Amino acid sequence: xxxxxxxxxxxxxxxxxxxxxxxxxxxxxxxxxxxxxxxxxxxxxxxxxxxxxxxxxxxxxxxxxxxxxxxxxxxxxxxxxxxxxxxxxxxxxxxxxxxxxxxxxxxxxxxxxxxx
Length: 116
Hints:
Elements: H1 4-21, E1 25-33, E2 36-44, E3 47-56, H2 70-86, E4 95-103, E5 106-114
Parallel strand pairs: 3-4
Antiparallel strand pairs: 1-2, 2-3, 4-5
């Protein structure tokens, strides 16, 4: 039986492959600070894309996208501010927050899922 961490990692791998196929370039993965974590930091053209990946086996209980609560969004925003404070090279890009919901083998990419 696969544990939650391994399932989440495989969901994140699937999301990363999907986004690369759609032209995004990886900047960093699993950026962590005290306040939170950003699963994927990528570039799409001249836009910095900060991505939360949510994995669920099924859409039961609202599915993967519904699990990105206001509290989780706040933690991601704080982590993004931290990232930009330490990575001056990324400050020149406009940024957006996306969510990639992985449910089983289905991948849904939600652009501009939330804002500051």
